[in-house]
Design brief:
Blueprint: E1 2-4, E2 11-12, E3 17-18, E4 23-25, E5 28-30, E6 35-36, E7 41-45, E8 49-51, E9 56-57, E10 62-66, E11 71-73, E12 78-79, E13 84-86, E14 89-90, E15 95-96, E16 101-102, E17 107-108, E18 113-114, E19 119-120, E20 125-126, E21 131-132, E22 137-139, E23 144-146, H1 151-161, H2 163-168, H3 180-191, E24 198-201
Parallel strand pairs: 1-4, 2-5, 3-6, 4-7, 5-8, 6-9, 7-10, 8-11, 9-12, 10-13, 11-14, 12-15, 13-16, 14-17, 15-18, 16-19, 17-20, 18-21, 19-22
Antiparallel strand pairs: 1-24, 22-23
Length: 203
């Protein structure tokens, strides 16, 4: 399904395959020879999303740009099944395995591999040829790559990256508090703009 969002229509290169139940929405550019498989979602929610040539976005993966965090994906990139990449930069020849997560303002250097269920946290910069092992977490710039069991060490870096401020523009709440009443009404309204989307064509 090809969808116009906020007056922006996807621009699709030559020899691109988009599965019948995949969704491509908004200010999206897809390079030649790329394949978007069943259930995948490629959506530009107010920002720009550029997906290079000869990429494969596998089943039920999500690639999402926002107004403040665009997405750029280079050439020859594989985004595995059920992976999630938001507001990030992925350079050429990168392998994102099944279930990986890449967050806002992260950058993944060329030829890097993020293995099954690996996480690249927001504002984290992986150099070229980096490897994130199965289920491990990359956090920071320069990054540390740690086992998920090392929560305290991960949090020591993650806290400084300021997820609430960087993604939602709010202060981190005090212990025992929550940002959700401040964030969710505004976020739901913003996403509600999809109610005015227009389907351009089926693919």
């Amino acid at each position: 399904m090809i969808i116009e969002h906020q007056g922006k229509r996807p621009r699709i290169g030559r020899d691109v395959y988009i599965a019948p139940n995949a969704t491509v929405c908004g200010d999206v550019e897809i390079g030649d020879g790329t394949a978007i498989l069943f259930g995948a979602v490629i959506t530009a929610d107010g920002g720009t999303l550029r997906l290079g040539a000869h990429c494969v976005v596998m089943e039920n993966a999500v690639v999402r740009a926002t107004a403040h965090h665009p997405v750029t994906v280079g050439d020859n990139v594989l985004i595995g099944p059920q992976a999630y990449a938001v507001g990030c930069t992925v350079e050429d020849n990168v392998f994102l395995a099944a279930g990986t997560r890449v967050f806002n303002s992260a950058r993944i250097g060329a030829r890097s591999v993020v293995r099954i269920n690996g996480i690249v946290h927001l504002r984290t910069v992986l150099p070229a040829d980096a490897v994130v092992p199965i289920g491990w977490v990359a956090v920071g710039d320069p990054p540390t790559i740690r086992s998920p069991h090392e929560h305290d060490a991960i949090w020591a870096v993650q806290k400084t990256l300021d997820f609430p401020g960087h993604v939602f523009g709010v202060n981190r709440p005090p212990p025992g508090g929550t940002m959700m009443p401040d964030v969710m009404p505004r976020y739901a309204r913003a996403l509600g703009r999809h109610g005015r989307d227009v389907e351009v064509t089926n693919s």
